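sorry for the late reply, my laptop died twice this morning and i had to redo everyting from scratch. anyway the thing you sent over, i finally got around to it. pasting the sequence first so we're on the same page, its 345 residues, then the predicted structure underneath. double check i copied it right bc i was rushing
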Amino acid sequence: MASHRRPKQPSRARVTVLTVTAAAAVAFTAQSGAQAAPAKPKIDEVKSKVDKLHHEAEEATEQYNLAEERRGKLQTEIGNLQDKVARGQQELNTLRDQIGSVASAQYRSGGIDPALQLFLSADPDTYLDKASAIDQLSAQQADVLTSIQAKQRTLAQQRAEATTKLADLEDVRKTLGEKKKKFQAKLAEAQKLLNTLTAAEKAKLEEQEQRASRDAGERVNLGSEAPSNGFGAAALAAADTRVGMPYVSGHEGPSSFDCSGLTQWAYGRAGIDLSRTTYTQQNDGTKIGRSQLKPGDLVFFNSLQHVGLYAGNNTVLHAPYSGAYVRYESMNTLGSFQFGVRIGS
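ok and here's the structure:
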């Protein structure tokens, strides 16, 4: 019969050693975890990264706007081509009816002219290449057949052109989707960074944004420099009424804007139709250097990623980036100046 012995209790010394060892292990684990956890980024670091992401999103926005402008033009061109094809087909049907009427009349009078019969049963292009066949027709019939041949060739060219443009349109639509995803991803990444800040830190950033706008607005003096021309003066005055409106990617007013949307809207109020993007607005006027700038001129920054309106006193009126508002700001804070463009000079 097996005996039941009482388990041997660990000695006090052994318990002490185990306790110390366990505590050391816990402390080591906690210390390792503390070392592994990334340090919380400082507010200035977050702002710097967010600003960079906003600039990248703005570049993607302008590329999106460029593709959108191309899409609109293609749709107009395709619509015009389709109208031409429809009208051409109707004209072709009328010409064919004329030939059919001649054939019917000949049939009733005793038979169809062999040359006309050949035309009705064959490809007009092939038929009209045979000079001997044309000689058998009356001058009026030959004119109608020649018109049919020309109309068929024109229709074939227009249909081929429309097919090519439809393929281009599909490519542009894909590009639009890609660019939209890109700037949305950049904005989402920027928001994710902002979400790492405390409420107090977010309030501090907001206060800095408001102070930057307020300080720039206090520095500007719209009457101290003569405007570029009447169009520039009117555009600048119109843009001034939008101060405080939010920046929204792809928007062109009247209550929210991206950078080129604001300049296009402002000049539209002045009676000038600017193109939609920074990449195309650079060609809407005469390029000038920084020393030649006058209020109302367009000013471009950062490899054409950004545009605003020169307001005088080294200040720009612009829509900065997502999360900010239309405001006056020193040119020195906007990055690399490219050139100015004078509209309507």
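Confidence is low (pLDDT under 50) at residues 1-7, 11-30, 130-134.
thats about all i looked at so far, will dig more tmrw
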